[in-house]
Design goal:
The chain has 998 residues and is an all-beta fold. 0% of the residues lie in helices and 49% in strands. Strands 53, 54, 55, 56, 57, 58, 59, 60, 61, 62, 63, 64 and 65 form a 13-stranded mixed beta sheet that branches. The radius of gyration is 31 Å and the shape is globular.
């Protein structure tokens, strides 16, 4: 059951006086995309008549309603079910506040009045032996068998959350104190002395705990906007992350997986690493929905940590919508999405193994769609739904997924009203199971004739559940193996049929697959095959998650004579994993080749901008020849589609920055090649953290905010809007006589404008003492397409923590040559493929590299490339050397790099002869891979150092066996910017410079 990671939320609301006999309270939910969720209340002396409680469910489905109860006054708030006794425990608020304990009927076993004015937390142990209710400043624990009070604890603060340990012997509490602080504590039941206490500045909004209660999350929507994870054995904070939500995160049972989401529409999944003693971000995902914005609201992780689910609220121009997403926790690509729910999906719950998902929400105001949905993991087609005259706030599945309880309001959440609902639902999909063994892992066993009944084998076994009773054809298949089909397989209701499979391999797989890593804006592949003429061609497969299976459909197919492929549909800062199969007659495929990792060039990805002093441009919307040659130039293209999931081409938006000698005016130009026609509200927006302290000021301090340089046919404008650390904003200031012109005369939209610099007005940029400010920008093609977006990976527009750096009065330095060169070739006789690679120098105005070939006293420029890798094919096997230079945007060229020696008579020659090393991706915003090729076993030590030599992390210290190997490094507490990886093997030491992105 989801008590294993049950969660409680404090809604932000106005003060609600305790209901007296003559008054009946009504309420409705308000959701504002800028300020969050609130509750509006009023009173009446005549309770409203509740709508008809008739359900509109699908009686043909196997699941169904066990029992239902409608309360005339109170609203169902929280709910939890146990795993052993079939108990349901829920809370009611607003009117007739109480808790109710239920078993198999709509007559409660026990109830207790709760004298409180607020929503309040509850909990129940997984065996159903103990329940807990906390209101105002007191905690009450009861035995469910006797309904006797076990213990009462009185605390000084207002309780936000309480969690019982699995055996009921310990209670973990979170309280808000009167001095705008909150306190997390642990108590042995019966002992008023805390085991530990951990305090935080500002009040808490919500909390969550893992099923084993080893982890507890404390969340603040206001104040620090932080989430802190506590080790409940010691009370120590082991992790923190940004938090902008009023809904709780979710843990796996053991606390190793943490799912969080925010009101910007992002979901983040974190994984605990024992060696680091903390969590690291595994992935993030931005929800869609087609509205102006979206919130992540409901969140759940299965107890086994393998499945995650989220529910959303989508803001539409004329109302609301909601979506449900299901993920494997190793991947940011949803398994499936279910949309058009009509309004917010307020809560989601997963069975322990993730096989069943329950989701509950508001449904549309006209009740034309369900309020609760139930799914199998394999399909986004609901197995059962509930459509009611009300809406739901909370839902909980039992651990086995066979029973669920859901509670909420008797009328729609957005309608002023009261009364409550609770349903207990049989969520068993019914049917039988098919199980057996198979000689290959990751084979697909599929029930044919019905959609989405399948499983993949693991450790030689498989299990397909919930198959409708009947007789079927079953197929086992895997790429590279002949499929096996068995007819007349009988599935019985509640039974399990056994069927084993043996798969036979089809033929030889391609081998020696290689992928470029940072060579260009594409990823190029090449491979070998014994007799290419004997096959019909090759299929190329790609994935972005190393642990995931390859998709069923390839990204491309080539003829048998083409042992290469260029993947151009790729994004920067993303590592792709490739495999190739050979095609035999009858469209039969070979097994996959080995997997090769590849990625694009990324030297244009920067996180800091240098504003040079230069000439004063003519602000006319035209970039004249030479006018901006003395400016800092950068690529601001939205090449990741970070905010709108719509990537643009690299190089499609170019920005120029410079200033006057007095440093009183910042000049900005922008070329947006994605936008060819001017429309009202085309704009460039600059969000500036003037003093670069990574936070906006408190309300009332108007010194920091954002600028809009906007085109209007009636007259262009530059606007300034203060931004505050609460997420709120101040009044917009329209700059007088703005210097801005925008034109599409050249066939693309061009902006030129000026922003004042100074400390004599709030609407001027006022850099810190180091002449630096934080900057985030976007370029908008009306009405909503982000064509430019920088920094590329900044996900929070109103949070300066992820902004880049703007340095005024910077010096245009000569570029440094690339370092850590590497050379490799595939054979001694023609044609010879030579692979060159090197590291990007630490610079923010990179334009390209020049690669020179030196042979017999002559030098030749053989390539200009933006990549840090070059594939060079030659028929000449004479001795030669290669050097590389760096060229910046102003065409300054560095001195040459150390030579890379090409000499087929001695084999591969490079700075570390006993070991070849490749570090990727670089730049990186997350995991870094160190790939090795060693001729013999050797001792290896890998350390990460700060620029000043401070040791940041030890990546590896041990013996590397001979051959190809990979080691991954998960950066922790490493700031954005440059760090160094020192690799020591035997007698040699190599240094690799790594640029860490925010």
């Amino acid at each position: 059951m989801n008590r294993k990671f049950w969660i409680f939320t404090v809604l932000l609301m106005g003060f609600v006086p305790f209901a007296v006999a003559q008054n009946h309270w009504l309420q409705k939910t308000i959701t504002d995309p800028q300020t969050g969720r609130s509750i509006e209340t009023t009173t009446t002396t005549v309770p409203p008549v509740l709508p008809d409680g008739k359900l509109m469910d699908d009686a043909a489905m196997a699941p169904g309603i066990n029992w239902q109860f409608t309360d005339p006054a109170g609203i169902g708030s929280r709910i939890v079910v146990d795993d052993e006794q079939g108990l349901t425990f829920n809370s009611w608020w607003l009117n007739n506040e109480r808790v109710s304990l239920w078993d198999d009927s709509n007559v409660p076993l026990w109830e207790m009045a709760v004298p409180t004015e607020w929503e309040y937390p509850i909990d129940m142990t997984s065996d159903g032996m103990f329940i807990n209710v906390a209101f105002n400043n007191s905690v009450h624990i009861y035995n469910t068998a006797t309904q006797a009070l076990v213990w009462e604890l009185t605390l000084p603060g207002q309780l936000v959350a309480t969690f019982l340990s699995e055996d009921g012997s310990t209670v973990y509490v979170l309280e808000n104190e009167s001095d705008a602080k909150c306190m997390a504590s642990a108590y042995e039941v019966g002992n008023t002395a805390p085991l530990w206490q951990t305090g935080f500045i500002s009040t808490a909004t919500t909390a969550a705990a893992s099923g084993d209660r080893s982890r507890m999350a404390v969340c603040q929507y206001s104040g620090a906007n932080k989430l802190w994870v506590i080790d409940t054995e010691t009370g120590e904070v082991i992790f923190d992350a940004g938090y902008k939500n009023q809904n709780p995160p979710s843990f796996s049972y053991d606390g190793n997986i943490l799912l969080n989401g925010d009101y910007s529409g992002y979901a983040y999944l974190y994984k605990y690493h024992e060696s680091l003693g903390t969590y690291q971000e595994e992935w993030y995902f931005k929800v869609g929905g087609g509205g102006s914005s979206a919130w992540v609201v409901g969140m759940a992780v299965s107890a086994d940590g393998k499945t995650a689910a989220i529910g959303t609220l989508v803001f539409l121009s004329g109302g609301y919508d909601g979506e449900i997403y299901l993920f494997d926790t190793y991947s940011s690509v949803p398994r499936w999405v279910f949309g058009n729910c009509g309004d917010e999906i307020a809560a989601v719950s997963l069975s322990d193994d993730g096989s069943i998902l329950a989701a509950a929400g508001y449904g549309p105001l006209d009740h034309s769609k369900p309020d609760a949905y139930f799914f199998r993991r394999e399909s986004n087609e609901p197995i059962f739904t509930l459509t009611t005259p009300g809406s739901f706030n909370a839902i909980d599945l039992s651990g086995d997924g066979m029973m669920c309880s859901v509670t909420g309001k008797a009328v729609h959440a957005r309608a002023m009203g009261s009364g409550g609902l609770i349903y207990n639902v049989n969520t068993n999909p019914g049917g039988g199971a098919l199980a057996g063994s198979i000689n290959e892992d990751f084979a697909k066993i599929e029930i044919q004739g019905i959609d989405n009944y399948y499983a993949y084998s693991e450790n030689g076994d498989y299990l397909v559940r919930f198959i409708p009773a009947g007789t079927y054809t079953v197929q086992a298949s895997k790429v590279g193996f002949y499929p096996v089909t068995v007819d007349n397989v009988v599935i019985t209701e509640s039974g399990q049929t056994h069927l084993d499979f043996t798969l036979e391999v089809t033929g030889e797989a391609p081998y020696d697959l290689m992928a470029t890593q940072g060579a260009a804006l594409s990823v190029d592949l090449w491979w070998d095959y014994g007799d290419p003429i004997a096959v019909e061609g090759f299929k190329i497969y790609r994935k972005t998650i190393e642990q995931a299976q390859f998709p069923e459909e390839p990204i491309g197919t080539v003829a048998n004579i083409a042992l290469e492929f260029s993947d151009t549909d790729v994004l920067p800062l993303t590592t792709y994993y490739y495999a190739v199969t050979a095609i035999f007659p009858g469209d039969v495929q070979s097994p996959y080749s080995e997997v090769a990792a590849g990625y694009t060039a990324s030297g244009f990805v920067i996180d800091n901008i240098s504003v040079y002093g230069g000439s004063v441009p003519v602000i006319d919307g035209t970039i004249s020849e030479g006018e901006w040659d003395d400016a800092f130039i950068m690529d601001a293209s939205d090449f990741l589609g970070t905010n709108d999931n719509m990537p643009n081409l690299v190089g499609s938006v170019t920005m120029y920055y410079k200033m006057n000698e007095a440093m009183t005016e910042l000049y900005v130009a922008c070329i947006n090649t994605n936008d060819t026609v001017l429309e009202d509200h085309d704009e460039v927006a600059l969000y500036i953290d003037d003093n670069m302290d990574r936070v906006y000021p408190a309300p009332g301090d108007n010194s920091e905010g954002n600028y809009w340089a906007v085109y209007y046919a009636a007259g262009n404008e530059i606007r300034y809007r203060p931004i505050y650390n609460t997420g709120g904003v101040g009044d917009v200031v329209l700059l007088e006589n703005p210097q801005i012109e925008v034109s599409d005369a050249t066939g693309v939209v061009v902006y030129e404008f000026m922003i004042p610099i100074g400390d004599d007005a709030d609407w001027k940029i006022s850099p810190n003492e180091d002449n630096q400010s934080g900057l985030f920008l976007f370029v908008l093609d009306d009405p909503s397409n982000f064509d430019g977006y920088w920094p590329a990976q900044n996900m929070q527009i109103f949070d300066p923590a992820g902004y880049g750096t703007l340095t005024f009065d910077a010096e245009d330095l000569m570029p440094e040559p690339p370092q850590n060169g590497f050379i490799w070739w595939d054979r001694a006789e023609a044609p010879i493929t030579v692979l060159l690679s090197w590291d990007y120098p630490d610079m923010n105005d990179f334009d390209h590299f020049n690669v020179y070939l030196h042979r017999d006293g002559n030098s030749e420029l053989v390539a200009e490339t933006i990549g840090s890798q070059l594939v060079y094919v030659t028929d000449n096997n004479d001795y030669a050397t290669f050097t590389v230079t760096t060229v910046d945007y102003t065409q300054n060229e560095s001195v040459e790099s150390e030579p890379l020696i090409f000499d087929v008579t001695v084999g591969i020659s490079q700075p570390e002869p006993e070991m070849q090393t490749l570090v990727y991706p670089n730049p990186s915003s997350g995991q870094v891979t160190i790939a090795f090729a060693t001729a013999a076993a050797t001792r290896c030590n890998i350390e990460v150092l700060a620029p000043d030599g401070t040791l940041l992390d030890v990546v590896f210290d041990g013996i590397l066996e001979a051959g190809k190997q990979q080691i991954t490094w998960q950066p922790q507490n490493v700031a954005a910017g440059v760090c160094f990886m020192r690799i020591r093997t035997g007698e040699s030491t190599a240094i690799r410079k790594i640029l860490m992105m925010p």
